[in-house]
């Protein structure tokens, strides 16, 4: 049987940028071939920071769905689901909460970080990892691909699964335990810098190129990109390493562009090619990369009912799995009384 993956995003934005692509989407597209993949839109988790912006959620959910489908996540291979349509999540989270020491939640680094950013100190923010553990354990995921910042949460899910199995699965033979033990899968990808040369591309940093940007927008952003600041004239020897223009070229060039790129690198270090020429080439490379994504997106944008159906079918499938899991959970906990 194929191993199962679950990963998710909070719908606090409506479009992905190149950094999201390199950091996670690209990997998901690859993993869908090998694993049975669940992608969860975590709208209840979004409420921890967006309880006063609930009017943005529906549009963001649609935007994320279009983003997933446009990069080639295949609805025949991926189960897309929406957290608030899986009420079993809250039920399981409660049971997991009964096994969660308060001190463990107090120690979570993500909580401190969010509070430092000025987020409200609510019960939902505090119990974030418990809900996330329920997300992961409901479909009995084996692997959870996430960024470094989420690793501690997946480890929490792992610990709670072990604890649950030990406590309630004692009489079950090994291999028939209630929960498989989920593992984090941390991609070793370097973070993509922003167009301004900042270490990280970010939605709110005004340094991002979005998968939804038009060819003209891409051109405008690239032509004003940060390059080697020490280089004043095209005849000055330039630095390729750490130069965002070359980092993007390496990250997004199709095979047929690669020869020219190694050429440019050589010329650049010798001061024999100008930034403008290299940037114009990057515009070509990026638009070539984005064109099929734009095309797929336009197809789905024209069929909003299809996108909705894909999500609905995913929800149905995820819900059936969730209900099955909960039956097993309650049985193991001996809470299956008064069932007939
Ligand atoms: N916490 C994740 C984030 O902020 C989103 C998320 C919610 C998630 N549930 C999940 C990720 C389950 C992986 C598995 O990005």
Automatic annotation (TrEMBL):
NCBIfam families in alphabetical order: trpS (TIGR00233)
UniProt EC number: 6.1.1.2
Family under the similarity heading: Belongs to the class-I aminoacyl-tRNA synthetase family.
Keywords noted in UniProt: Aminoacyl-tRNA synthetase, ATP-binding, Ligase, Nucleotide-binding, Protein biosynthesis
MF (Gene Ontology): ATP binding; tryptophan-tRNA ligase activity
PANTHER family cross-referenced by the UniProt entry: TRYPTOPHAN--TRNA LIGASE, MITOCHONDRIAL
Protein name per Swiss-Prot or TrEMBL: Tryptophan--tRNA ligase
